[in-house]
Amino acid sequence: MTASSAATSTASRTVLQGRVLRLYHGRITVRWQPRAVLVCLVLALACLTVAALAVTTGSYRVPLATVVDCMLGRGSRADTFIVVNLRLPRLVCAVLAGAALGMSGAVFQSMSRNPLGSPDIVGFTSGAAAGAVVQIVLFHGGAYATALSAIAGGLVTALAVGLLAVGRGRTSAYRIVLVGIGIGIGAMLTSLTAYLLTQASLYEAQDAQIWLIGSLNSASWSVAGPLAAAVGVLTPVTVLAARALNWLELGEDTARGLGVPLGRVRVILAVAATALAAATTAAVGPIIFIALAAPQLCRRLVRAPGPMVVPAAFMGALLLTASDFAAQRLLPATELPVGAMTGVLGGLYLCRLLVARRRKSGP
Length: 363
Description:
Layout: H1 3-15, E1 19-23, E2 28-32, H2 34-56, H3 64-71, H4 77-112, H5 119-122, H6 124-138, H7 143-166, H8 171-199, H9 202-213, H10 221-241, H11 245-248, H12 252-257, H13 262-284, H14 290-302, H15 309-330, H16 338-361
């Protein structure tokens, strides 16, 4: 065995550490890590705890037993309206949006091998927001037209950033240029959005501004349904395609030597991750911090290499659910938009991340 093949074998064992679950007589194999499964269970339990608090507390308190009765159709009319029509759709939207953003951030950070490579930092979320504002201000579209425009804006921005970054060279440059170009395009799209708001009518500007902050205050089943459909379709695609990210983290040359179709995998993952972020933006507006922090926090808990797509989904759901709960309860007289809460947390987290990287790299 040569030195290069030995190094590849050692790296492969490091990336693919864990246990293998074989299904259908070995025709389907799933590799899993006990610590990652434990982390997912703990995060799910914490998310359920926050969810129970969210649906039972507030200005109108509902006991947990009554919540169960309302879900089974046995509650009173007032309790059913509060629980089923107001609190549950908001909770479902928070869980789905947080999970989608967590997966999207994990994919982008793994592909770019950069902790800042999340859709809100790279500019894809700004593209989705700009697409939605164009629809609201210029075409006066409704909710579904705005959602479709947001998805289209996110995908077009992702295509533009990808083409400009890939055109610069190989992976070493790609990691740096991807973030730089994304931030530049995001800044231009933010300026375009601000200009459109100055040209809009008062009511259109108010609607667009509330949406741009990122809010779950108007969440309903009509919003949760399409978001659930999008997440349900994109999650299996993302999780299955993300298996190739284990090999990509070994390096582009090693992954190509192992037979990984890099071009096809990158296109599938980029489209799926962008669609997850755009669908979330279309449903609840541009919510920052979740896609940035969820994968990094999971990596610290799992303590293993890999893209962390599934744990990031659980972490994202917990972060957004807890942030929305805090936004509702922090100032009882005023319901803060969840985007304002995550923005504050995201700014503090980003500063801490930059300081930590500076200390690690030295002066």
